[in-house]
Amino acid sequence: MLNPQRLTDRKREAILQAAITEFRSHGFEATSMDKIAASAAVSKRTVYNHFPSKDDLFAAILQQLWESSAAITELCYRADVPLRAQLLELMQQKMRMLNDAYFMDLARVAIAATIHSPERAKEMIARMDKREEGVTAWIRAAQADGKLKSVDPEFAAHLLQGQLKAFAFWPQIAMGQAPLDEPQQAAVVQTAVDMFLGYFWTKAS
Question: Which UniProt keyword terms apply here (predicted)?
Fold first, then answer.
């Protein structure tokens, strides 16, 4: 006998996946809860049992996007490990996330929907900026250790991560380009790290 809780979880996941598909295909405004229910092969009542409104459903999609990005960049600065090795590991994690098909699917849904409603973008942007504080914290710790120049750590983190996004996020989101292959990913990560260290690494270190 199928566990009722597992069945409920499966229905909820089916609804989320259907919503992602519908939002991507038709946009937020043109997608109805009826369409989502039909796509998920559940009743409209079941959809509302899980998500009281379309905005709540969209918020759940943003939550998945957040959790997907929150699963990375948990590395703390270590004074006993070379800066380049640590930064390479940080940016390799970031690159893996940017090349995850599920993450990109969620990002497309979120961005497409927020274009038509800037208010919806605020939470997503705030959360993604907060997630990137892991890199900012790493830079701040390296500065305190005298290994990086004393500049705004948030500014430096945006510069570093922005180089990855310029090749492995925005072209795929905005222009439908194919994901980078592994050699391309490695080249972008290594070049971004080396450029960053070339400018911000202190001569004393």
Answer: DNA-binding, Repressor, Transcription, Transcription regulation
Q: How far is 20 from 184, CA to CA, in rounded Å?
A: 29
What one-letter code names the amino acid at 110?
A
Q: How many helices (H) and strands (E) does the chain have?
A: 11, 0
Is the torsion defined by CA of 3, 8, 24, 186 positive or negative?
Answer: negative
Distance between CA atoms of residues 133 and 137, nearest Å: 6
Q: Tell me which architecture the domain covering 63-200 has in CATH.
A: Orthogonal Bundle (1.10)
Q: What is the pLDDT of residues 123-147, one digit of tens each?
A: 665 665 555 678 899 999 999 999 9
Reduce the secondary structure of 94-125 to three states and give it as a string.
HHHHHCCHHHHHHHHHHHHHHHCCHHHHHHHH
For the whole model, what pTM was predicted?
A: 0.76
Residue 1 — very low, low, confident or very high, per pLDDT cuts 50/70/90? very low
Measure the CA angle with vertex 186, ends 184 and 192; round to 5°.
Answer: 100
Q: In the CATH scheme, what is the code of domain 4-52? A: 1.10.10.60
Cα end-to-end span (Å), the chain: 63
